[in-house]
């Protein structure tokens, strides 16, 4: 401990103002705040949750029903080689698939030249309507 004794000036004179600020308490408070912030920040999770099967599945008793959705280069959607005129018709067919107890497999085959927006729209509609067995077919064309 040390004591600051002043400059010994004239009696009754105002003491000189202290020119230095004590930074130690300020630094201590800032370190405590940084540590609290680090502890309370949630862990960043940039992953997609997948429902993966556990163990080996039993062998299939019958061949699964497969529905093929083709997306042509210009955005034309084909359901088992039949043209779907609009989004409403596609969603009606997807609702029929989702309503079945044993859903058929939906194979989505996009053309290499089609815009991502069209394919993502089909997948989003299928997910929103409850289609659980959907997969992309023909990925070797993108390599």
TrEMBL record:
UniProt keyword annotations, A-Z: Cell inner membrane, Cell membrane, Membrane, Protein transport, Transmembrane, Transmembrane helix, Transport
InterPro entries linked: ExbD
Membrane-spanning residues: 23-42
GO molecular function: transmembrane transporter activity
Compartments it resides in: Cell inner membrane; Cell membrane
Membrane topology: Single-pass type II membrane protein
Gene Ontology cellular component terms for the protein in this record: plasma membrane
GO biological process per UniProt: protein transport
Role played: Involved in the TonB-dependent energy-dependent transport of various receptor-bound substrates.
Family indicated by similarity: Belongs to the ExbD/TolR family.
Record text on subunit structure and interactions: The accessory proteins ExbB and ExbD seem to form a complex with TonB.
Name of the featured protein: Biopolymer transporter ExbD
